[in-house]
Amino acid sequence: MGSATSSHNGHSKAMKQANKTDVAEEDDLLNEVDREQDIAQFPYVEFTGRDSITCPSCQGTGCIPTEQVNELVALIPYSDQRLQPQRTKLYVVLSVLLCLLICGLVLFFLFPRSIMVQDGGIKMVTVWFDKENKVVTIAMTSAMSIKNSNFYAISVTNLITQVQYMNTVIGTEQLTNVTLIPPLSDKMVNVTVKLELGGTLSYFYDFCTLTSVKVHNIVVFMRTSLKFSYIGHLSQSSLETYQYIDCGANSTIPRDHSIN
């Protein structure tokens, strides 16, 4: 009986210890569950060390080593505000319209326009007679008007004038770096060509010195070629006219002060 009672008491103590152990384990489990819930509700606070920096794209939810900043690719969440367009279409439309406006203005002001060349007539004629060789020498000064319709100055770099009687060339003149014409303006340019009527045209000596005739007009064909330079662009224009000149006497037409 004594032994039975002692064994019963030992079994009871073992049961009580087992129950205490189970209760302690259950308490630990409950405490861990409560701790996880508390952690889940507690906002994340990051404490970075010396060898790490705050992740630039995760808004404080992680950190990367400093030496790996240039080696890693940041993953930005789709819901990140930086990915949300903020008036992007408006800015794009305004930028396109501004570029079109600037291009239109540049084309309008820099687009090459035509250069008009018009005949200004004969301004002065000076005649010399070589009685021995029967040669008539004429210095003929003609004028031409050049109109610049561009928004920038143009330079007349070359001018060539050729005068013919019938199919015979009787005079040629070439000028370089003639003049500079300001924007949206016109300018008169004078050209003096020396003509010689002799050789096969020696009969002009008798006609031009004939005293019974007051006006000794002859008709000559005048062709002038001009070359222009502006903003790195080269262009060419020509003028062809028929001129009446008096080979019997000197003549001068009053010049306009605007003529160069």
Automatic annotation (TrEMBL):
Cellular compartment(s): Endomembrane system
Keywords assigned by UniProt, alphabetized: Membrane, Transmembrane, Transmembrane helix
Domain called Transmembrane protein 106 N-terminal: residue spans: 5-89
Pfam families: TMEM106 (PF07092), TMEM106_N (PF21002)
Main subcellular location: membrane
Membership in a protein family: Belongs to the TMEM106 family.
Protein name as catalogued: Transmembrane 106C
Cited InterPro entries: TMEM106, TMEM106_C, TMEM106_N
Sequence segments annotated as region (Disordered): 1-21
Any one cellular-component term (Gene Ontology): endomembrane system
Domain Transmembrane protein 106 C-terminal: 112-252
UniProt source species: Pelobates cultripes (Western spadefoot toad)
Residues annotated as transmembrane: 90-111
Domain of life: Eukaryota
